[in-house]
């Protein structure tokens, strides 16, 4: 394709400055066909992007670019409708920034062999990022029909952008449904390596149901949330906690992030996310310790 790219760029600039719409459209079309040619037929190797090797990782700039392009084309036009949610705060829409999610995904040590779940997946931004960043298999479930329909469009555009950039994401599955009722989710929970729940606005009843559902998780699986799910096996606890089953079989760590990294808060102070690692052995030890201490406290010792 014997065209000079500088000339095409100049025509775009000229049309833009002259506010000449037909000239601008034709210059952009020419630029696009040059890019297509370079990507598919060029003999210059650096012009051809290859499928990402997930053992070395996709370059961060390419990852963010693909995600941003997909988001702008599918989710951004629906932003105002997405923000209009009903009276239940659990259905409130909100997102985490790309860099924050990048760090969370890194911390979770996902690989192309991992299974990642996003419970309350909104427009599917987290599953797309996890699968492109690491090659993992992702599944997202969303109850809000409108968000779930935007997620479907987002997923289609995301696949197109990945193909265009020559990068490959791990498989992504989306379901429109209720976390507490999905049979597909029940199947996947048994195998899952990492579960993400943006439960900032979930009420105590939904969080408690999640804890019960997580009893089927495999040992060492991670649950990452924005609100802690209960009391860690490493916390000090009382009889009441044991009776009320407040102690969950997780070791929990707390991590700080900047409030600017989430869309729903403009708080000045830092925000937190919590990483829960399933640790049943430590959980049964903690219960044993608690039983012994109860026996010691209630036994009447001879004086
Ligand atoms: C704050 S948004 C999080 C979106 C996305 N995970 C993220 O972090 O960018 C929480 C989502 O959970 C969804 N949700 C709330 N309760 C749910 C339920 N029982 N089943 C499925 N989704 C639910 C809401 O509709 C909302 O879209």
Automatic annotation (TrEMBL):
It is an enzyme of class 2 (transferase). It catalyses: L-lysyl(79)-[histone H3] + 3 S-adenosyl-L-methionine = N(6),N(6),N(6)-trimethyl-L-lysyl(79)-[histone H3] + 3 S-adenosyl-L-homocysteine + 3 H(+). GO terms for biological process: DNA damage checkpoint signaling; DNA repair; methylation. Transmembrane segments: none annotated. Its EC number is 2.1.1.360. Pfam families: DOT1. SUPFAM superfamilies: S-adenosyl-L-methionine-dependent methyltransferases (SSF53335). One of its GO terms (cellular component) is nucleus. Ubiquitination of histone H2B to form H2BK123ub1 is required for efficient DOT1 methyltransferase activity on histone H3. Its main location: nucleus. Residues 1-291 form the DOT1 domain. In contrast to other lysine histone methyltransferases, it does not contain a SET domain, suggesting the existence of another mechanism for methylation of lysine residues of histones. This is Histone-lysine N-methyltransferase, H3 lysine-79 specific. It comes from Favolaschia claudopus.
